[in-house]
Design brief:
This is Glycoside hydrolase. By secondary structure, this protein is α/β, with parallel strands linked by helices. The chain has helices at residues 2-10, 41-47, 80-85, 89-99, 103-110, 149-162, 196-219, 243-260, 274-287, 308-311, 315-323, 328-341, 367-385, 406-411, 431-444, 450-459, and strands spanning 50-54, 116-122, 166-173, 227-231, 266-269, 296-304, 346-356, 388-391. It folds into two domains: 1-48 and 426-461, no CATH class; 51-425, Glycosidases (TIM Barrel), CATH 3.20.20.80. Strands 1-2-3-4-5-6-7-8 form an eight-stranded parallel beta barrel, surrounded by six helices.
Length: 461
């Protein structure tokens, strides 16, 4: 079983230029018969290579992505907390939740070959099913504003399944804020997530989240198999570099969640100390039984547009560094992937983009071509070394940002038009190639039936 799960997780396709795929409707959900035995439909959603996109500023707002909900926000007008405290906050948020992702958006993503979406949420959005999550927090008096959030989150999971997408639920905003950014729930610069009371409370929130997700998946009209995992907290930034405390919290929380559902994959952020956290996951794996431990993934976020060093590095040099196996990031990824694979875990890049600082693009004759070279270098690295990746972000309120939004990046040729497994009609010319592919898949999966083989061919990778 572990060998087959490893095959599904580590399926790697060398990324290269591919012919434009003809548009077609999203694949229909696979019949429920595949939920029996192993590998079942849920396994295939969870352990395939995740080629994904973040649905940023949907349930956790970021003003640079979507400005409209902030027009009536309380000062300083940068966070969910500010919008919720403003006049008519409930109506504004519910209208945004209902309209940010339309059917055409889901269809567009499916037509790019994306197979998974990462959905950032705030802890306060569970308050309708567990009022205790906001007790003693900044959102304690705002529960009425967020009563409609959880039903919409579960509807998003169901809609994603209809379009063939897995869903990674990411706790983007935790009590007390895990970093200083406004996307951690409030506009305060104070980071108090690492206080013992908030750490304990967040563990309870995550166990409640897992319980609610399991309950929803089971009690749906049919079992929903497409929740690929839960990310414990987004981009935690421990004060005084106290990573020992963060790792202890990870360990405690993972153990608590495994007691509820030992099979739910769990994702943890590396706080940009990738080797250290890979070693931490390995230590957990060495102490655990593979038959009872959920799959763990280490999430690294890669951007090259924020530091002074990034800004002074030409775009072509950024791309070249990512293609050089001896350079820092590729060598780290190769080393970390090997470390994680030794305990059945994996590395993902949960956020990345084609954004480059203007300093990196000085003198570049074709900005979009330079960004495309940078994007292709990233994709090649992630396809080789990682179990998955998630572009940040799907779209912005305004068009024209080819570095950050997938829709604009595809339109400008910065991001490929297709990144998934291609559904093709078998011709006499390529019949032999398809026979070899099907034979290899059949052998890897231990002789599965034709329906399952069709599912694997369409969804794995």
């Amino acid at each position: 079983m572990e060998r087959v799960k490893s095959f599904l997780r580590r399926d790697r396709h060398a990324h290269g230029s591919q012919p434009v795929r003809s548009k077609q409707s999203p694949p229909p959900p696979v019949p429920a018969v595949l939920s029996v035995g192993f590998p079942n439909q849920q396994d295939l959603f969870r352990y395939r290579k995740q080629r994904g996109v973040n649905l940023g500023s949907w349930f956790v707002l970021e003003r640079w992505i979507a400005d409209a909900p902030f027009q009536g926000a309380a000062p300083p007008g940068q966070s969910d907390h500010d919008v919720a405290r403003g006049p008519d906050g409930q109506r504004i948020l519910e209208e945004h939740w209902d309209n940010w992702m339309a059917e055409d958006d889901w269809k567009w993503i499916a037509e790019r070959g994306i197979n998974t979406v990462r959905i950032p949420i705030g802890y306060y959005e569970l308050c309708s099913v567990d009022p205790s999550v906001i007790v003693g927090t900044d959102f304690a008096d705002l529960g009425h504003v967020f009563q409609g959030a959880w039903p919409r989150i579960t509807t998003a999971i169901e809609t994603a399944y209809r379009f063939g997408f897995g869903v990674l639920i990411d706790l983007h905003a935790a009590p007390g804020k895990q970093n200083a950014d406004a996307h951690s729930g409030t506009s305060s610069n104070e980071i108090s997530f690492f206080n013992s009371a908030n750490l304990v409370h967040t563990t309870l929130i995550l166990t409640s989240l897992l319980t609610q997700l399991d309950k929803y998946a089971r009690n749906h009209t049919f079992p929903l198999p497409n929740i690929v995992g839960i990310e414990l907290v987004n981009e935690p930034n421990p004060p005084n570099n106290d990573h020992a405390a963060l790792q202890q919290w990870y360990k405690t929380t993972i153990e608590a969640m495994r007691r509820i559902d030992p099979d739910m994959p769990l994702y943890i952020g590396d706080s940009w100390r990738t080797d250290e956290y890979a070693g931490f996951i390995k230590s957990l794996g060495d102490q655990s039984s593979a038959s009872t431990s959920s799959f763990l993934a280490l999430d690294h976020h890669l951007y090259r547009c924020f530091t002074a060093s990034d800004n002074s590095t030409p775009a072509a040099q950024h791309a070249a560094a990512l293609r050089n196996p001896a350079d820092g990031t590729p060598s780290t990824f190769a080393r970390v992937s090997s470390t994680l694979a030794s305990v059945g875990a994996d590395l993902i890049v949960g956020e990345w983009s084609g954004a480059l600082n203007p300093g990196s693009l000085q003198g570049v004759p074709d900005e979009h071509a330079a960004k495309r070279e940078f994007v292709d270098a990233q994709l090649a690295l992630y396809e080789k070394e990682c179990g998955g990746w998630f572009w940040w972000t799907y779209k912005k309120q305004w068009g024209g940002d080819s570095g950050w939004t997938m829709r604009d990046a595809v339109e400008k040729g910065v991001f490929p038009g297709w990144v998934g497994v291609r559904a093709q009609r078998v011709t006499e010319h390529d019949h032999g190639q398809h026979e070899r592919r099907d034979s290899a898949l059949d052998k890897a999966l231990g002789g599965c039936n034709a329906l399952l083989l069709l599912f694997v061919s369409s969804y794995v990778g």
